[in-house]
Amino acid sequence: MLPYSWLIPFFPLLSFALIIFFTIRNKKLSSYISIGAVSLSFFLSCIVLITVLHNPVTSEFKFNWLDLPGFKVEAGMLIDPLTAVMLMVVTLVSMLVQIYSVGYMAGDPRYSRYFSFLSLFTFSMLGLVLSNNFFEIFIFWELVGLTSYLLIGFWFEKKSASDAGKKAFITTRTGDLAFMVGIFLLTTTIGTLNFQEAFHQVEAGAISTGLLTLSAILIFGGAVGKSAQFPLHVWLPDAMEGPTPVSALIHAATMVAAGVYLVARLMTIFSLSVPASLVVAIIGAFTAFLAASIGLVQNDIKRVLAYSTISQLGYMVMVLGCGGYTAGTFHLMTHASFKALLFLGAGSVIHSIHTNNIWEMGGLYPKMKTTATTFIIGSLSLAGIFPLSGFWSKDEILLVALHRNPIFMLVGIAVAFMTAFYMFRLCFVTFFGKPRDQHKFDHAHESPKVMTVPLTILAFLSIFAGWVGLPWLHKGYSSFVYHHEVHHLDPNYILMVSSLAVALSGIYLAYLIYYKGVISADKLRQRFSFVHKVLYNKYYFDELYNAVIINPLYKLTDFLFKKFDLGVIDWLVNAVGNFMVFLSWAKERFDTLVVDGAVNGLGYAVKETGSGIRKIQTGQLQNYALVIFFGIVLILLLKIF
Amino acid sequence: MIGLNHYLALSALLFCIGIFGVLTRRNAIGILMSIELLFNAVNINFVAFARFINPQEITGQIFTIFVITVAAAEAAVGLAIIILIYRQHKGVEVDRVNIMKW
Amino acid sequence: MENGILALVFYIFSGIIVGSGIMVVTLKNIFHSALFLVLCLFSVAGIYILLSAEFVAAVQVLIYVGAITVLMIFAIMLTAQLYSTSVRQSNEQVIPGIIIVVTLLVVTLVALSRTSWRVVSQGIEGQTTISIGKALLTTYVLPFEVVSLVLIAALIGAIIIARKE
Under a CB-based contact definition with an 8 Å cutoff, are residues A24 and A115 in contact? Predict the structure, then answer.
């Protein structure tokens, strides 16, 4: 089966082509094609996963794509346990999101195009996961960036949406530039693009430590952009302008995890450079804390989830920096299920009451029982409550962090507390208490089955997906996806209990403030008004970037426009123009006198010759026959003598 | 002794007479008759070759029969065309039919 | 002796063929031309018999003399140019025509005299009609059928071309 794994990304690509070229007018058929294709891919991914489970070795299938002297580019697939798990996650979430979209996007004028974009995205993401070399992964890396841009700006009539698309694209491009330079640096030094060959070379010491660190940090720059890590995290909250299923698929479960995947894939390179992995860990921890604290005070349901995503990605990056390959990818997997669930749940709420602002919601539980229940399950899982998925992966992360450096563990605990708090703030405000906007409340309704069924499946996964990595299992996740050798950390019960206690206390605090009202949120806000202001404005990152990067650029371009364009270039253009006018005049004289004369003379000669020669055309067939026989006789004469 | 070359010479003579007719006759029916002479010249060739070169196989005679058949078809179509020309031009002189000139 | 008679017969037929052929292409009266054509074609049939091709000779007489020439004479009568000897019957290409034709003849005869044929001495034995019949229905059955189609198509075409609108 494994050599045929290329079929997995092929089906979504086929579906993209079919929809774009043939069925774009037929909305229903388009969505069916898209869902059918991704279902096939999911089925094949299951087979791949089972195959790899039975025989957990790394297999590679490749062919030479471009073969130049001293330089070759391959195309191929690298399938190891990590790839198998990622294939499963991507196809599963993609399939559920596409099914959900049938309900969510119903009635959208660009329905078919939406599904074609989703197919294209699925193709690119699967290609990224299967890539076996830097060149290929970069191509798919850019392709997912493109589809992300297309889908963020899907409702491009809205200025904020098209702006968000541009922002996402440009911000991630900044990271991609670093990624590209890093690839150049690494691959020109070691002379291969192939991952496995590169790993061997690096392990054999083919590259100096300093250069390795530099290229690893530059490559990590790509991950920073794609996974929205500090300082390039600003695009992800704005990306929430896209349709909510897109946020669930691309900006929560799969694409933003590509950065994490990249770091995990290149674990060999990072693990050989202590400074690089330290940078990775610090960036991750900082991002996790930063984003979680911003998430505490946001009022837009999707933005809270976006900051939560950034924070959780920071978690994964941090643990990868600490060398926790297994823990990072494990959290990636569980996070994909419950974050997709949360986004789809939020989408269900938004679909029902048409607002993103949590202060216009409230008391929705009785009206939307399935959505609310699944959303709360997702929140519990994200907060890391025993025995849901999130608990096990978070526990694994904290354990690795504790072994590496307790500071990271403390940051992780703090983030866990904030996570539990903001998630349950969201739950209590949205689903409980009194309706704050009676009009919207009256129109609230449960979403159709096509949306709630994926929610239910994801809720199920949010509970059980983590159980594959129970710390007591000796044949669990950690003995399947690992780097070099199995690192089986013994369960640390003190850590488990304390992280659970922290999470519970976060939930309890949210309960006190937003459900019981024992502690007044307004008073807290007044007392810590400065902190609140800073957090509410996201640490003024957007303003900072505007002031430091964007405005100077504007000013520079403005200056250049006024002085350089108007002064120098325009003068030059005018001068060239005048010169050209003179040249044209001279040429016109030449044309009239010389060229026209020659042309007319030639024409006259041809005309006269023609009218003389045309007499040959007598119209008498016997004349023609005479000439023919004359020719024949001539030929025969030549033949004979 | 009359040999192959005698027949071939006769055929060549007949062929040349036919060509002369084709080149000089004004009457379309005359041209058609000249063409029949050409056919006959060719047929004499065929039969002579069949007799002298390969007497076992009678391919030449078979060919002659096909040529005669096609000649019949040609004559039918040709005469039909001549009648059409006659209706159009009130005459069968081919030099009247000269619309294909400059 | 026999050879001498055969040669005599050959020369008589050849003379008739060439003479009547020249008449066909030069006579002013097109009807007379047609009659000389009949004579010419008859003589060609005689040549066929000399070449032991009895069946072909019979076909020649039946189709050429019996059918095609009669068709020609019909056409001549239909176009009503029977005795219009006042109409010039040959065009202004006579002199170039003669030159070309004579050159062609000379060239051909020279070519003939230079060629040596692998002539088989033995003649055709027995009746050729039987072998022609067999050949037409075995080896040449496909051309035979095709040529019948050609004939049909030509006849239909002739009718369509010549009919009044």
Answer: no
Residue C107 resides in a domain: no
Query: Right CATH number for B4-89 from 3.30.930.10, 2.60.40.790, 1.10.287.3510, 3.20.20.60?
Result: 1.10.287.3510
Q: What is the pLDDT of residues A305-350, one digit of tens each?
A: 889 999 999 988 998 888 888 888 888 888 888 888 998 888 888 8
The DSSP element (H or E) to which A68 belongs, if any, is: strand A59-68
Name, in order, each residue with C-beta under 8 angstroms of A115's C-beta and a sequence gap of 6 or more: A15, A19, A30, A31, A33, A34, A98, A101
CA neighbor of A341 nearest in space, from A252, A415, A262: A252
Three-class SS state of A77: strand
- The whole model's pTM is what? 0.62
Would the CB atoms of B68 and C59 count as touching at under 8 Å?
Answer: yes
* Residue in this structure with the two tokens 């069916």, named with its chain if needed: A32
Which of C82, C117, C139 is the last residue before a domain boundary?
Answer: C82
Minimal Cα–Cα distance from A609 to chain C, Å?
A: 26
Rg (chain C; Cα; Å): 20
Which of C47, C63, C82 finishes a domain? C82
Task: Give me the residue label for tokens 């400074």.
Answer: A275
ipTM of this model? Answer: 0.90
Q: In this complex, do C90 and B5 lie within 8 Å of one another by their Cβ atoms?
A: no
Whether B22 has its CB under 8 Å from any CB of chain A: the answer is: yes
| C115 belongs to a structural domain | no
Q: How far apart are CA A10 and CA A619, in angstroms?
A: 66
pLDDT digits (tens, 9 = 90+) for A123-169: 999 999 998 888 889 999 999 999 988 888 888 888 888 888 888 88
Contact C56 B61 (CB under 8 A): yes
**A627 touches C at CB < 8 Å:** no
Provide φ and ψ at A386, rounded to 5°.
-60, 135
The answer as to whether C27 is a domain residue is yes
